[in-house]
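Batch 3, record 17
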Amino acid sequence: MRAFFKSRAWLIRMLAFLLVLSAVLSGLSCLAANLGRNRNPLYNYSTTSFFAEPRDSIDVLAIGTSNVYSSVEPLEWWHNYGFTGFTWGEASQRIFETYEYLKRIYAVQSPRVVLLEIGDLYRDDTRAEVLDSLLKSRIAAVFPIVTYHRNLGKLSNLGAPLHSVTKGYLLRTQTVSAAGSGDYMADTSAGKAAVNALCAHELARCVALCRAHGSQVVLLSIPDRSSWNDDRHTAVAALAEQLNTPYLDLNLALRDKIDWKQDTADGGVHLNYRGAQKVTDYLGAYLAETYPLPDHRSDTAFRAWDSDWTLFSRKLQTL
Amino acid sequence: MQYNSWLYLVGFLGCLIPLYYLTPLRCRWWVLLAGSAVFYGITCGWLTAVLPVTAAAIWAAALQIDRNLNPPGGRDPKLPREERRRLRALTERRNRRVLAAACILAFGVLWCVKYFNFAGVNLNRLFAALRLSARIPRLRLLMPLGISFYTLSAVSYVADVARGTCRAQRHYGKLLLFLMFFPVVTEGPISRYGQLGEQLAQGHTFDYRRFCAGWQLILWGLFQKVVLADRLDRFTGNLFSHYRTYSGGVIALAILLYTFQLYMDFSGCVDIARGSAELFGIRLAENFRRPFFAVSVNDFWRRWHITLGAWLRDYIFYPLSMSKPLQALSRRSRKAVGAYYAAVLPALPALLGVWAANGIWHGAAWKYVVYGLYYFALTAAGMIFEPAFARVCGGLRIDRNGRGFHLFRILRTFVLVNIGMLIFRADNLTAAGTMLRSVFRPGTASAAHVLRTQGLPPEQAVIVAVGAAVVFAVSLCREKNISLGARIAQTPLPVRWGVYIAAVVLVIAAGAYGPGFGKVDFIYAQF
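Prediction for the assembled complex:
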């Protein structure tokens, strides 16, 4: 036995090295995730702040890419309808990461409705990139530093509060008009922009996971002039039909309402506050009409939502 | 599959390494072949089919040449000398034909996918000038990964068999592995069969030291690519796209940073490739040897993309310069021009061939041809004016072996190489000319402002500056034959592990990937 281990000392050394490396990466992951929070809770849209919410207190979860945190304001829903919501958005979040995040989310919350933003389905161009995203999401589930590594440069955020006043929404007030004036959703009849099979499979897993936890799932496309088009809409609509899931494409639903000269923060990629209001209003009305969501406004357990709304609305008045 | 992706580093290598060492020694090359096929298949899809077809033709051609050179049963030694000479000449003729057919096929495939449209555009211009109605259509051609690299390896293999430098590989799978070996298929180094082929065919036992050295190289390559090269991509991309907006030092800075980016990108890729091969006990040829310590452009090309330079030297320069007509020219001109220029004369047409091939190999555009010719002009001028230059230095009592002159030569080469890089990176020759002129115009914006607004804000610029200093220090050590990798490997375990962990954390934490950074393919993989 001793001889076996002596001849394989390198193996033990390598395993020990990997163990130490894992411990270091875990520690740095924890730090990097925390440094992603803004010191001002009004501008804190970090996904980690989701875990500051009381257990099972969120009715609607909107999850996806930066389009979600730039466009969905859950406090407006609270103010208008009384149901609670949270926006979980990470820049360039892939569907594989969405699945990993949903697993963590369901450990503490049981949202009745999940708005699954699918802008990321087309993010990777090649099969190798899709596979890379898949593997990265699994690694990031263990070592989040892989996703949050850039936060390590924001040491001034150390000790920032977990609480997010805006419930994950990022208030963007600047306006940078989009170039061009054509209808980016015009029917080109160029055929379907096929969704990668692995991405489609992961989307189905996300839907199944949500359903297994009793959530209703709605697929969602946020208005995005820079990357969405009619072909992609057609492909996702077909996918939604296969999954027997409603699909809200706000690129079409708000086609006449979004003004790409006024409602975008960066030339047509993300919406600013004006555009976000239109998205939020539409979604609020849709959710209130379609799903029996509770009104918590008279519930004393949800007082904190009133104070958050007060802070947020005060900020809005200064704009 | 990018070498700097999680898919490659964790998924692919993580599966292949244990599989390789758990397979019986004799069969380990099969694991490498299967791994290379998976690597190539994931990256290229159906285009993967092109490589095995080319490999089959090369394999058959080399076997035929080998059979001609070494007939079964050998040559009858009792044959009269005349007959032996006749047979040798016949064999040489036959082999030349087979070699030519193999080259035409290998370069033909490369030409079809890489140069067809370029040729078509230029011929169409010619037809239009001659008022001919003929038009060559533009085709949507897809290039298999690494075709420019494996084509050169394939041709060198058949040529080496024909020269008798190496014997033909009888097993098709082993030759396919030589051409398809996953670490070299993206950006080289361009391998010779004699150096790599046999290594691949043998199984290698696990060597802990080499394994660690392999990971050291991979980490160093990742640092160059992910931390430095990719961080510069947005800035250089913006400046080269909007070059008309800027002038003066800003343009000079863009050229300088692009040169650094290209070096870090290419050298990083090759270091990852060499490190990956080392994990399997396979040693690849060195492709870079501190190129910016070069004292002349010739020296630069002996240090930069070494394997391409060596290929062009062995398969274009020597055959051309040693050809009968050029040697005859040298002999005839000796009296008229003297011994020095008689030696230079046959080298010049051969150099023209080398540099034209070097230029066009890089891409199907005139700027690449000019890029090659630029180096030809510099090399030729250096050779032609060398006696005059030596006289001037002698007259001015400049010590050509002194430190100051050595530094001057390094700086001169650095400037000339940067001009070459400008031609290489600019959108076209007009843009390159405009940028070069605008370097000498007064600047309209401060470099600090441009850096901040065009993708290299102060915190990123600091990382690049510190990284560049680290690269310089490491290069200096290597230039003085100090191997930092070996020194680290000899330090006590806590120090060694500390260095390795710090390196992994540095690459993960300071890497230019994820939100805020675009996807950056390896630059040379596009050639």
